[in-house]
Known about the structure:
mainly beta, 0% helix, 129 residues, seven-stranded mixed β-sheet, four-stranded antiparallel β-sheet, globular, 52% strand
Amino acid sequence: xxxxxxxxxxxxxxxxxxxxxxxxxxxxxxxxxxxxxxxxxxxxxxxxxxxxxxxxxxxxxxxxxxxxxxxxxxxxxxxxxxxxxxxxxxxxxxxxxxxxxxxxxxxxxxxxxxxxxxxxxxxxxxxxx
Length: 129
């Protein structure tokens, strides 16, 4: 059974940094793309960043491009999201997700929630102004 556990969230001030981690188990981590999504109160879950199985491709939402960096360590079965220059509008629950498709080489367009089949419980990120 696929298990994804996020950590690293917290309360920070605008301009600060945080690094989220997603520890994966129950599957061969290195064979699937992974992604980060977020959901703010009253809003739909939205794409933040994704990374292919080999880390050869990374994708970002326009709202985080240049501030967030997604990475993975396949030896540790862990994915990361380095978040710099945080803004109050980044406040949300951040979810880690695993792609449904084995060995996906790329995402054609913005990765969708429907591309991902396994989800973590989420970690809260709150950015105060």
